[in-house]
Amino acid sequence: MLPAVKRAIILQKRIADLEQEASKWHSQYHELLGKIETRAREMFNEWRSSELEKQANERAKILFEKWKRDEEKRIREDAIKRSEAALKAR
Question: Residue 75 and residue 54: Cα distance in Å, rounded?
Answer without folding.
Answer: 31
